[in-house]
Amino acid sequence: MTANGISLSPELISYKDKNAVARLGIIALSTDLTSEGDFYRQIPEDRASLYVTRVAFENPTTPENLRRMAPRIRSAAELLLPVGPLNAVCYSCTAASVVIGDQEVTQVINDVLTDVPVVTPSGAALMAFKQLGVKKVSVLTPYRIETSEPMASYFTSQGLEIQKFHCLGIDDDREMARVTRQTIVAATLATDTTDTEAFFVSCTALPAIHAIEEIERITGKPVVTSNQATAWALMRHAGIEGGRKDFGNLFNKDTL
Question: What global pTM score does this model have?
Answer without folding.
Answer: 0.92
